[in-house]
Amino acid sequence: RAKQNGKGGYAFFKPELDAAARRRVSLEEALRIAILRDELSIAIQSQYSPLSQIKGGEVLVRWLNGPDGVPVSPAEFIPVAETSGLIKPLTLLVLSKALAVVTELMDAGILLPLSVNFSTDLFRDVTLIDGVLALVAESGVPPELLVLEITESLFIDTQADVLANMERLSTAGLKFSLDDFGTGYSNLAYLKRMHLSELKIDKSFVDHLPHDDDNRAIVRSILSIARQLRLRVVAEGVETAAQADFLSAHGCDLLQGYLLHKPAPAAEWVSSVKLLKSEKKV
Ligand code: C2E
Ligand code: MG
Ligand code: MG
Ligand code: MG
């Protein structure tokens, strides 16, 4: 077909590129409107101690009513938000919803921390940091109950302003967790310098536990380094009892994954936590 067009290979590939570019543009437009209309929501996935107590949860943004009424995965629309300037209002929206959840639980006498994912570029923006601190202060939530999940890409260019912004949040009491640990640029020297409290072992290492020799060694090393640096460790993507047993036996602090809990709409999560509290399981 390319030859029929008389444009060689270029014409053969171009329609696909156009489709991807068109999808991006339409997602960006729809996302802008969805943010304005407050159509994004949050789901929460519980994090458990090895004794099956809920110790907190991860907040995951949801866009259930995307273009044509079809849900869009954050894996697809977060990159669009990041390259279009929408990540800032999106993050503040997610954060305010997360703070409302923590507040509702506090009103029921339950103190549980929530983790919120924060894209790397946000730490270059002083006004975003101001916005975060203002939202936390207005909410009355103890800053310690808010954990910001960041990734190793933040450490590639540690400009002074990035470090200063992280330090402001850390001084205010917010916690930092290093998400997808082991998949990116791992400069161990940064682990202590970056005000981290927690590491999250990436799902790709958890996947082949406990059978794969290499992944066993990697996970044990991560747990050992974390212990020596006094960092808490969360394993993500735990899907089998054998994985949970291995991680618990080697001192992993918290487990997160479909085996224990699938992300649930915020209201549903709050109800289930309150119920567990009444049964003294939180
Ligand atoms: P992440 O932060 O690593 O989040 C974990 C992802 O793994 C979530 O997918 C979660 O639903 C999924 N997951 C949890 N347990 C299991 C399991 O046992 N098996 C499998 N196969 N998957 C599991 P989700 O919600 O689609 O989010 C994907 C990514 O999108 C997140 O990865 C995060 O990088 C990003 N993201 C989500 N919400 C936000 C947000 O509010 N802001 C930013 N900046 N990024 C977000
Ligand atoms: Mg995360
Ligand atoms: Mg993760
Ligand atoms: Mg991940």
UniProtKB/TrEMBL annotation:
Domain of life the protein comes from: Bacteria
Domain annotation EAL: ranges: 24-277
Record protein name field: PAS domain S-box-containing protein/diguanylate cyclase (GGDEF)-like protein
Taxonomic source organism: Marinobacterium halophilum
Parent-record interval covered: 422 to 703 of 703
